[in-house]
Amino acid sequence: MTSPPSISASAWGQSLLAMLGVHTPVAEAFESAPIADWARSGAVAITGFPDRPLLPTGFGATAARGAMLALEALVGPLGLQGALLLAERAALSQWPANAPWSLGQHCRAVKAHDGYLALSLARAEDVELIAALVSDGHASTWDSVDAWAAQRTAREVVDRCRLLGMPAAVVGEVSSRELMRIQSTESPRKRPLAGMRVLDLSSLWAGPLCGHLLGLAGARVMRMESAARPDGGREGLPPFDDLLHSDQPSVIFEPGSLDLLHALVDSSDIVITSARPRGLASLGLDPQRFLSSREHGVWVQISAYGSSGPQADWVGFGDDTAMAGGLVRWIDHVPIPVADALADPLTGIHAAAAAAAMTVRGGAHLIDIALADVAAATHADQPDNDPYLRDGQWMIETEFGARPVESPKARTAPSPARALGADTALVESWFAN
User: For 195, left (φ over 0), alpha (ψ -120 to 50), or beta?
Assistant: First the structure.
């Protein structure tokens, strides 16, 4: 799915539905074009430097807005602007732009002998792996990585990171990929999304956002986590976790006792996962078996680089996968991340639109959607204009004239997310007889 930089949200949404095999008209979007949509999204204000905002690369804000229009064409108005979801976490965290780092300061470009790679050290285990990466038992800092990488090619560094399970990518290495891949078994009987049972086994941002949007559209979403490894989003930014999981029952499973997990998977209409294939296999879960056992059902498989082939085992997060897809700004010959973990919300919104479309079509469908692919699909050439100050306000010249650079905005969660496992006993009682 490719589009010129002049794409509008309506055109993107319409082409998305066409790709999904649904021929429903999408509403027209007011003043939609890449720069105008970026200006309105809040993402410009969090890209670049604290005293110098920059225009992100690509047309992600337009794609997000268009994917939301596609979802609303299927389920009715939700009262959301897709582009605003890109900076919603930033509005809650209040993290300032801090180039050359990502907004959360866990990811940045690393200079190798022949170019740049993106590396995230978001988890404690990633920092602990620095010693193994650089073959120095005392190494534990970014400086150690920089010194070691400078003597090697970017590909050599990334290959070693991936061997160790660290999230890394050569900047811009993913290009011309499909937005998503879908395997389908058709059924002549269509179904509405409202009332469908959604089991969200994913974590962090992309998958939970997909589930959150399906819930707003009328589906019944249940959050399920491993008791041994709960969703890291709970501890990362609790107000954001509340927003994504408000009103969702919370259920846990014990790794040594998978009966409840399997029962809920078998009784769900839509399953959302973000685990790698070997992780699913360790839980006895098989998307193909899930789909072959039913006339209707949707399995949303969210990954960093795709769920088949060697890349299925690669680890990636929203910032480094966005950089893999080319979504960086080159400043003084250094690639810097744009927006906030941009591949995450872009993927979550598109995954929700796809899940809704496949449900409405009827049949059994596997949606394989990767963060890096979605980033690459919204890539475009480097922008040639950036914001400027006018009377104390950052402005930018858009396709519709000068417009202010708007600050990130966030909705308020209607209620806190349910405590970990709060509803497990109740749900277990459903299957007791």
Answer: left
